[in-house]
Amino acid sequence: MTRPHRNSTRREFLTKSAATAGVFSLGACAGPGGGEKRDIPKAPDKSPIPEGTPVRIGLIGTGGMGGGHLGSMMSQIKNKDAHFEVVALADVNSAWLEDKANTARSNQSGVQVDTYADYRDLLARDDVDGVLIAAPEHWHAQMSMDAIAAGKDVYCEKPMTTSIEEAVWMMDTMEANPHMRLQVGTQKMVLEKYKKAKELIAAGEIGHPTLSQTSYCRNTPAGEWNYYKIDERVKPGETLDWEAWCGSRGVRDWDPKLYHRWRRYKDFSTGIIGDLLVHMMTPMMYALDRGWPTRVAAIGGHFIDHDMENHDQVFLNVGMEKDHTMIVAGSTINATGLPVIIRGNRANIFLGSNNCEIRPEHPYAEDIEPRTIQCKEVRDQPTLRLDWINCIRTREQNISQVDLAAKVMVAVDLSTKAMWEGGTWTYDPQTREYARE
Questions:
Q1: How far is CA 246 from the centre of its chain?
Q2: Residue 159, preceding peptide bond in cis (omega within 30° of 0)
Q3: How far is it, in rounded angstroms, from Cα 111 to Cα 113?
Q4: Residue ranges covered by each domain of the chain
Q5: Please, is 158 exposed, middle or buried when counting C-beta atoms within 10 Å of its C-beta (0-12, 13-18, 19+)?
Q6: For residue 278, which of 265, 263, 256, 267 has the smallest C-alpha distance?
Q7: Which of 12, 193, 206, 224 could covalently link to 332 via disulfide, CB atoms 3.0 to 4.6 Å apart?
Q8: Which CA distances in Å does 242 have to 136, 139, 246?
C-alpha cells in the first residue's frame, strides 16, 4: 500500500518553511564564544501513522554508509520487521544514486522509488515521513535541520555534527520542536548492559562514579578508510556535483581520495574521534549521567599511517561536570583496546562483555555482592534504526537523542582542538563558551 504524493518544488518548500513553519532566531542558539546566531525552525505538527499504512522513508547519501543502511533496510522489509518503504533517495553523485535506486526498486515490489540530485527536493515532498542522513559529516547538521523544518523525522549518522556550535543549534531546535524525532546513529545505545549500568549507578551501588575508561581500537595495515575504493565512474561535472559536495567547507581542487576517503582529512572529519570513539563514549556518558564535559585534554599522533592527515592514534582525558573523569583511547594501528570499566569509590562495573558485571572495592566487600547481570544480545544498528521507524509511527520517544549527542560533541570538538591547537580546553554549559586554558 502506498500513499499518493505531490512533487512539490524546492521553491515551494523554501517558501512554506519560511511562511508557515515559523522560522525565528533565538539568542540561546548563538554559537559558543559569541559566534553566529542560527535560525531555529518550527516544524509542522506530526500525527501517528495508522497500522496498515507504511512509514515512508527517504535516504540522503548513498555511499558506503548509506548503501549499508539501504541493504539492511531491504532485509528488514523482506523479513517484515516493520511496515515501511524506502521511496526516495538523494545524492550529488548520480552513479551511486542510480545504483542504490535500482537496489531499492528490485527489493520493493510495487513501490515507486524516486531520485534527487538536491536533497531539498526530496524534503519538499509531503508524503515522506522521515529521512535517514548518511552524507559526510560536514553536511549532517544542515541536512538534519532542513529536514526538521520540512516536518521530517531524522535518523542522523554519527557523529551528529562536526562542532559544538552545530550541536547546540540542533539541541535548541529539537527543544523547540518536542513533537519531532531525531535519532543519532550511535548504535551501541541499544545495548542493555549500559542501561543496567545506569540503573546501578543511579541506585548508588558503586558509590560515586569517579573514573571510567573505554576505547575503540583496530589495526588497518593498508591505512584506515583506504578500503573505500576509488570509483572511476565518479567525475566532477559529469556524474558528481563537486561544489555541492564540498558545501560549507568551500570548493577544493578535485581529489578522488578526498571524495572517497574524506574521514582521513581534518577539514572534513574528526577521524577516529568522531567516526569511532563516539560509539563508545555515547552509551558510557548515558550510563554515567555526569552532565557536560567541562575540561578536556587530548593528544594525537601519526605513528604509522603518515599519509593520513587525521591522527592514527588518540588519547582523550575528559573531565565531567559532576566530578568524574573519562579516559578514552582510539587507534587504527593497534587493535588492543582498554577494558571498559566504570570505577566508583565503592565498586566497579565491568562492561567488556555483553553483560554488566559489578565487583566491590576491597573495603566494601562485605556490603556489596559481586554479580553479573545477564543482558540479551541485539544487532545494534538494525535495532536502533527500527526504534526510529517505530517512533515515527507511534510518536513515542526514540533512544539515541540529541541532548546526549550534544554532550558527546563537546568532548569530540574540544579533543580535536586540543590535538591540533594544543592545550587543555574548558566548556561552560551555562554560558556555552569554550576556551583554551
A1: 20
A2: yes
A3: 6
A4: 10-185+385-400, 189-223+269-378+410-436
A5: buried
A6: 263
A7: 224
A8: 13, 14, 6
Q: What is the CA radius of gyration of the chain?
A: 22
Torsions phi, psi of 388, nearest 5? -65, -45
Distance (Å, whole) CA 188 – CA 196: 13
Give residues with Cβ within 8 angstroms of 295, minimum separation 6. 318, 319, 424, 425, 426, 427
CATH superfamily of 10-185+385-400: NAD(P)-binding Rossmann-like Domain (3.40.50.720)
C-alpha 196/C-alpha 201 separation (Å) is 9
Q: What is the pLDDT of residues 236-246, one digit of tens each?
A: 999 999 999 99
pLDDT at 29: 55
Q: Which of 299, 322, 313, 300 is nearest to 211 (CA)?
A: 322
Low-confidence ranges of the chain (pLDDT < 50): 1-28, 30-34
What is the residue-wise DSSP string for 390-421?
HHHHH-PPPSS-HHHHHHHHHHHHHHHHHHHH
| Architecture (CATH level 2) of domain 189-223+269-378+410-436 | 2-Layer Sandwich (3.30)
| pLDDT, tens digit, 9 for 90 and up, residues 62-121 | 999 999 999 999 999 999 999 999 999 999 999 999 999 999 999 999 999 999 999 999
Question: Cα–Cα distance between 90 and 121 in angstroms, integer?
Answer: 9
Identity of residue 233:
R
Residue length, the chain? 437
Cα-based distances in Å from 144 to 4, 41, 154, 232: 25, 11, 6, 30
Measured distance CA(99)–CA(84) in Å, rounded? 21
Distances 76 to 19, 87, 187, 255 between C-alpha atoms, Å: 38, 15, 16, 36
Q: How far apart are CA 271 and CA 416, in angstroms?
A: 9
